[in-house]
Specification:
With 115 residues, the protein is of the alpha+beta class. The chain has helices at residues 35-47, 84-97; strands at residues 3-8, 14-19, 25-29, 52-58, 64-70, 73-78, 102-105. The protein is 23% helix and 36% strand. The longest helix has 14 residues, at 84-97.
C-alpha cells in the first residue's frame, strides 16, 4: 500500500508526495504555507478520489507525466515516466491505494540518530 509523506521544502513551505508500495514517488503536491493545509488536502483527496481526473502529457524529451485535477483545480503533478505503460501503472496505483494510504509526517526534521 502507498503512503502520503508530508515534508518541508527549503523555502519553508510544505508539500506532500504519494509514494508507491515500493517507495517510489508517484506524484508531488503543490506548495502549502501551513502543514495542516497538507493534511486537509490529503483528506479531501481521499474522500473525492473517484472525481479525480488525470490529464496526461508528453514532455519535449519524450517522457510521460500527468497532472492530477480535482474538479477544475490542479492538485498535483506526477513524476516523469519513460513509457506510457508505466504512466498508466502509476495512475492505477493511485486509484487502488490512495484512499486507504497512511499519512507520514517528516516535516519536523527530527533525526532518530543523534550525533
Amino acid at each position: 500500500m502507498g503512503a502520503f509523506v508530508i515534508s518541508k521544502r527549503f523555502n519553508d513551505t510544505y508539500k506532500f508526495v504519494f509514494t508507491s508500495r515500493k517507495g517510489k514517488i508517484i506524484f508531488t503536491s503543490l506548495s502549502y504555507e501551513l502543514k495542516f493545509e497538507c493534511q486537509e488536502e490529503i483528506d479531501g483527496f481521499k474522500a473525492a478520489i473517484e472525481t479525480a481526473e488525470f490529464v496526461k502529457f508528453k514532455s519535449p524529451n519524450g517522457k510521460y507525466f500527468f497532472k492530477l485535477m480535482l474538479g477544475e483545480q490542479h492538485f498535483a503533478t506526477s513524476r516523469k515516466y519513460t513509457t506510457e505503460l508505466r504512466l498508466k501503472k502509476g495512475i492505477n496505483e493511485i486509484v487502488l491505494y490512495a484512499s486507504k494510504a497512511e499519512v507520514l509526517d517528516f516535516s519536523e526534521n527530527d533525526f532518530v540518530f543523534t550525533d
